[in-house]
Amino acid sequence: MTSAKRSLKPFHVHIATFFIMLFTLLGIALLSIQFKQNMRQGVEHARQSFVQSREQLSLALQLNEQPARMSLNLLRNGKLEDMDSLEARLSYLAQMVTVLANRPSYGAIYIGYQDGDFFLVRKLTKVNSGALLDKKIPINSVWLVQSMHHGVGEFLYYDKDLVLITRHIEPEYSFDPRSREWYKQASRRYGIVVNRPYLFFTTKEPGMTMAVQSINRRTVMGLDISVKGLSTMIGTLDLPMQSQVVIFDEKATLLATNPADMPSFKQFTKLPTLAMLGHPAMDALQQQIITHPTLLGSPAEIYLSTVSGHKWLVSLSPLGEDSPFNIALMVSHEQLQKQARHEAFIVLRWAIMGLLLLLPVIWWVSKRTATPLIALTKEAERIQHFDFGESRMPESAIREIDDLARTMSSMRRTLGNFMNMGRALAAEHRFDSLNSRILHETIAAVQAKGGCLYLAQQHEMQPVYARWQQADLAVGLVPWQQALLSGLASSQRISLTVDKQVWAQHLSSWGPFLGSCQLVAEPLRNHRQVLIGCLLLILPRCSEQELASRISLIEALAGMSASAIENQRLLEEQKQLLESFIELMAGAIDAKSPYTGGHCQRVPELTRMLTAAACAQLKGPFAGFTLNDEEWEAIHIASWLHDCGKVTTPEFVVDKATKLETIYDRIHEIRTRFEVLKRDVYIECLAAYLPQEVRSACRDEAAPRWAELDQEFAFIAECNLGGELMAPEKIERLNTIARRTWLRTLDDRLGISREELKLRQGEPAPELPFLEPLLADKSCHLIPRPEQERIDEHNSWNFKVKVPHYLYNRGERYNLAISRGTLTEEERYKINEHIIQTIRMLERLPFPRHLRSVPEIAGGHHERMDGRGYPRQLTGQQMSVPARIMVIADIFEALTASDRPYKSGKSVSQALAIMANMVREQHIDPNLFTLFVSSGIWREYAARFLAPEQLDKVNEANLLASSIASG
To answer: 783 in helix, strand or coil?
Structure first.
């Protein structure tokens, strides 16, 4: 170790030398890489330029040829071949002119006949007009028709509108198409033929002829196409410097190149070869093509050397698929190297300048950095014992940080274990998992052989989790050793050496004795310093210093563990308190009305069953639907609180069994009895003055009227039940009965409450006796709605409900005329209002973040999939899956409940049939309904909560088919 330290150099020397060598090597590497990369980029740029040029020129050639092929095929299929006179052939002039007008490169279109006739249409341009100087071309001539018919030549000139300007016989014009190469090639082959490029005789332009034989094989149609435009396009291409592009055929015949390098074709009688361009590389390329013709079959890349010693990179390729032409791009190799060297030298200059500028900086920084390192070695000891300070941990063999490395390594492990423990405990939300994680992480952090976590339960310590030799240990094997650990309550910790005797006496249940070890029992105390548990660890034998370090870490981890355990316990207790309060509130709501008892308890169970079925789906619309523990908690709370707003709904509205049932001051009924008594007294007095036979006659006369009144009352009583729909004829009869009058002699304002008297202040008291209708709708029956119960259209809850003007309407005729059921519009709104109150109440509660969906889930069970529900008119897409589950759970429970006063519980088949219809009406989610039926949840629920006679037979296939067919 001493000799190793003597060989170490000062830190600043190492740093300075290292960076100087690094920058030097880096500069050389960058220079080499830059040069090679620039060369590759230059070659790649040339390749890309070649490919782009080839594609553009190939496309231009195709665009030139394709319309020509189409036009020739159209003429071939026409009747021009059958026209045996000039006048008949001129009928095709417009069609042939259209072909020539499509492309400026199309020079002439013609047809040669088997008998030697020839018919040609030529576009007159400045070029070919100059070539026809011996012909007197009329002014405004645009089109020329050259005809040879039965040996007579004739020229016809037309303007741009195909109006004949002049025509005259040309005695000197003699042309036999049958002697032409294009005629012969087309006659020998089927389909369109393209002859080798040549110089057009008239215009001295390079071009080619496309020809095709007619279907009856009596004529050949031809089209002259100029390729001069390819040279023009080459002149516009973005090519590398000192490069050249040429197009040629397999004989090295030049077809196109840059216009600046292109020779004048007027001096030639045929197309020149590549060597005639006068470029030394072209001569070498022509020799390569002639001696190695296989180069032209596929894309190739070769290097050519000229006589003067210059090298050229040549890229060769066919111009297009099945094209007879080839394209070559020639780039000077010297130019590529020149550019690469130039850029490499720029990099070299910058690297040298940077290195020179950095030399003093490197030296100064290295000297500056070495100064505090010795002090950091001492600080590392403090950090190891959680006396934190700022320092870094470099890995190096330098003398000044050699001692620091060992200390820093230990510090890193300590801090890492502590932080890992903190993160692990923070990530656990379940009490059982938290206990196992605490022991597991602590054993790993302090490198213990094993340990056990004890928690104070019912005034004694109980083991909750144990590990030994990297394996879980049954807690029944590690009971609390009161004799060994009795002093833990009064002391901070217990630390003792365990020998074979102590092991056999207290720890033999852990397993066989593996040698002397150290037992550390660290108490777990909450913030009130109450003992809540103990962390018992068995450590291997170690030095005093290392043991002290481990105990310090155990102490810190124990404090963190105790805090986590206490927090988790408090959280569990708060959850239990909240759940008990929720169930208490739901029970109070059910107990409030004997007719809805159990609803708030059955809906959560049904919701849980359907949600579990959705989570279990591996395919279908709910394949990806899963819930974590917090989301399950939100659904549980929401389902228990879904009807908490009913606490604000009056019982007399919820329990209203008949139309006239309400909160009623029985003084009105007693007053009516007094009215009857008064009439009885009066009748008795009158009857006393009448003989017996007159009394009998009166009773006989009154009997039909009594019977009529009995029938009318029976009708009113039937209407009061609300069991049947009130048809228009029933409403009319009700109105007729209501118009009957009776004589009131007593004041109806005596003995009533102050509130009811206030309702009658708006109308004067009539003089008695007073004739009143039998069934009345009075102003005192209209209970005004308090202003605070009105809901503005733009309310903060986004409720979209129609609020009735009155709070209640207790009119007798109004209530009896209810068309369906027993509830008025005001009362139905009052019942529906419970969901509004539910949302308001729940949104006022400060739910934690993971429970903030409770109001949405609980408040959506009266919404519909089509957006016509209440109170927010949400669509199915706007509702969460748990909210849609609540809809189905609430409906099925309500349909099958047998404790409602206004209906009996429906059978399972009836309830599911109704729900299938609700699917068709877009009331409930079709996918959830399908899951509800197919999973058999309804059967399990019915077996637990419904009467046996309600669980009847259900045809699931027909039920689902009926819902899907219209859904």
So the answer is: strand
Q: What are phi and psi of 820, to 5 degrees?
A: -145, 135
Per-10-residue mean pLDDT of the chain, 967 residues long, equals: 54 69 73 68 64 67 73 78 84 85 82 90 73 69 89 89 88 85 85 79 76 86 80 70 76 76 70 74 77 77 74 76 75 69 71 73 68 62 57 55 61 62 64 77 82 83 85 84 73 80 84 86 82 85 82 80 77 74 67 64 84 86 85 82 74 70 76 80 86 87 87 84 83 86 83 80 84 85 84 82 85 84 82 79 82 83 87 88 88 80 76 87 89 87 85 83 64
Contact 805, 784 (CB under 8 A): no
Residues near 184 by Cβ (< 8 Å), separated by ≥ 6? 178
* Cβ 673 vs Cβ 921: under 8 Å: no
Q: Which residue has the tokens 């074979």?
A: 500
Sequence-ordered list of residues with C-beta below 8 angstroms from that of 792, at least 6 positions apart, any chain? none
CA distance 760 to 456: 70
Extract the tokens encoding 420: 């890992």
Q: List, in sequence order, every residue forming a beta bridge with 167; answer none if it has no partner.
A: 156
- Residues 669 and 685: their CA atoms lie apart, in Å, by 24
With CA atoms as reference, report the closest residue to 234 among 246, 226, 243, 225: 246
Helix (H) or strand (E) holding 486: none
Whether 349 contacts 341, CB under 8 Å: no
Contact 934/960 with Cβ under 8 angstroms? yes
Distance between CA 511 and CA 809 in Å, rounded?
Answer: 82
Between the two ends of the chain, the Cα-to-Cα distance in Å is 85
Q: How far apart are CA 913 and CA 139, in angstroms?
A: 92
Contact 748, 668 (CB under 8 A): yes
Q: DSSP 3-state helix, strand, coil percentages of the chain (rounded to 5)? A: 55, 15, 30
User: Among residues 727, 783, 726, 724, which one has the least CA distance to residue 756?
Assistant: 783
Query: What SS3 class is residue 389?
Result: coil
Which residues touch 358 (CB under 8 Å, ≥6 apart)? 19, 23
- Residue type at 255 in one-letter notation: L
Task: Say if CB 64 and CB 247 are below 8 A apart.
Answer: no
Distance separating alpha carbons of residues 468 and 572, to the nearest angstrom: 29
C-alpha–C-alpha distance, residues 396 and 406, integer Å = 11
Radius of gyration of the chain (CA): 53
- Beta-strand ranges (E) seen in 159-297 are 164-169, 193-194, 198-199, 206-213, 219-226, 243-248, 254-257
Report the amino acid identity of residue 601: Q
DSSP β-ladder status, 450-457 and 254-257: unpaired
3-state class (DSSP) for residue 373: helix
Buried-state track 200-224, b at ≥16 Cβ within 10 A, e below 16: bebbbbbbbbbbbbbeeeebbbbbb
CA distance 340 to 334: 10
CB 783 within 8 A of CB 759: yes
Look at residue 631 and give its three-state secondary structure: helix
Return the pLDDT at 1: 41
| CA 435 to each of CA 463, 493, 571: distance values in angstroms, whole numbers, following the listed order | 10, 20, 15
- The predicted structure's pLDDT at residue 3: 44
User: Two tokens at 781?
Assistant: 């029956």
Q: What is the DSSP string of 202-231?
A: TT--EEEEEEEE-TTSSEEEEEEEE-HHHH
At residue 153, the 3 state secondary structure works out as strand
